[in-house]
Write a structure and sequence with these properties.
Layout: H1 7-18, E1 20-25, H2 30-35, E2 38-40, H3 42-51, E3 56-60, H4 63-72, E4 77-79, H5 88-91, H6 95-104, E5 108-113, H7 118-122, E6 126-128, H8 133-137, E7 145-149, H9 152-162, E8 167-168, H10 174-177, H11 181-190, E9 196-198, H12 204-207, E10 212-213, H13 216-225, E11 230-234, H14 240-246, E12 251-254, H15 275-284, H16 293-309
Parallel strand pairs: 1-2, 1-3, 3-4, 5-6, 5-7, 7-8, 9-10, 9-11, 11-12
Helix pairs in contact: 1-15, 3-4, 4-16, 13-14
Bound molecules: 1,3-dihydroxyacetonephosphate and iron/sulfur cluster.
Length: 311
């Protein structure tokens, strides 16, 4: 072919030309995190998307996150490098089934993890993220019954943390389910002083081995706050890129799967976004993320409640 395009320079140029902002989640590839204007957890990214004055939001994350940006900023063009960037948690809660579940429990408040479709958000009362859930649950009257979807592991952990019984939907994240207890125990034996930092999407057997449990932003904070020279990280390993930047002298090891390989348990959906696809979507302003207006308005209600209650 012809002369190689300097993809990074083109992204910067197109970003200015389009008055675009690039938002990235911590699970994106390092080169995407490094070119983004803002990197954050799900709550940070929702707030940024609601408040930016850019005309275009190039969302480097998965589709439900880009939908949140569109729901909160409908007048903006929201683009996603690869529309196939889904999420196993979203897939585990088909909107029609979720609506039936709700109708079967009319006396329950529907507290729903942000990792779901816009249609499921539209059927929910309050959205939560890992970093805001405890704060939000604390504001719900004690006698109010709660159902929680779609992540059963996060839901069970929140129940243990808050002492609130919740009716749980049976969904999970394929990445966090894949960590092996046996292999993690072997790794801990190798590094007996290293704390385990885990995301609450992990099953209970992994969380029992954790010294810290929190959202990606919380795990990242541990990198600089803790003095331990080695830390074991039980979440999608791309977060380690920011941990390493925050604490270059420390060693961060991604938790292993059943094959014993460390730091290899990546999210296949997040990995669909590449620098090349980011370039093309800024150039073509496509693919765009759209949400039907009736669903958008209903979903905005539950998202606005999250933003208010986590302020
Ligand atoms: P947080 O960044 O809010 O912890 O979310 C983790 C996640 O699984 C996103 O898909
Ligand atoms: Fe969904 Fe899990 Fe990937 Fe997050 S890491 S986007 S929860 S599949």
């Amino acid at each position: 072919g012809g002369p190689a395009v300097d993809v990074k320079a083109e992204i910067q140029r197109l970003k200015r030309e389009r008055n675009a902002v690039i938002l990235a989640h911590y699970y994106q590839a390092p080169e995407i995190q490094d070119i983004a204007d803002f990197v954050g957890d799900s709550l940070d990214l929702s707030r940024k998307a609601a408040n930016t004055d850019a005309d275009v939001i190039a969302f480097c994350g998965v589709k439900f996150m880009a939908e949140v940006a569109k729901i909160l900023s409908p007048q903006k063009t929201v683009i996603l490098p690869d529309l196939k960037a889904g999420c196993s948690l979203e897939d585990s809660a088909p909107p029609a089934e979720f609506a039936r579940f709700r109708r079967a429990h009319p006396d329950h408040l529907a507290l729903t993890y942000i990792n779901c479709s816009a249609a499921v958000k539209a059927e929910s009362d309050i959205i939560v993220t890992s970093s805001s859930a405890e704060r939000i649950i604390a504001q719900i009257p004690k006698d109010q019954k709660i159902l929680f979807a779609p992540d059963k592991h996060l839901g069970a952990w929140l129940s243990r943390r808050t002492g609130r019984e919740m009716l749980l939907w049976d969904g999970s994240c394929i990445v966090h389910e894949r960590f092996s207890v046996t292999e993690l125990l072997k790794l801990k034996a190798q590094y007996p002083d290293a704390p385990v930092l885990a995301h609450p999407e992990c099953p209970a057997a992994i969380l029992e081995l954790a010294d810290y449990i929190g959202a990606t932003s919380g795990i990242l904070k541990q990198a600089s706050e803790r003095t331990d020279p080695v830390m074991l990280v039980a979440t999608e390993p791309h977060i380690i890129h920011q941990m390493q930047k925050a604490a270059p002298d420390k060693l961060f090891i991604g938790a292993p799967g059943a094959d014993g390989n460390c730091g290899c348990n990546m999210c296949p959906y997040m990995a669909l976004n590449t620098l090349e696809k980011l370039h093309l979507c800024l150039r073509d302003l496509s693919p765009v993320v759209e949400v039907p207006e009736d669903i958008r308005l209903a979903a905005k209600r539950s998202l606005d409640r999250m933003l208010e209650m986590s302020a």
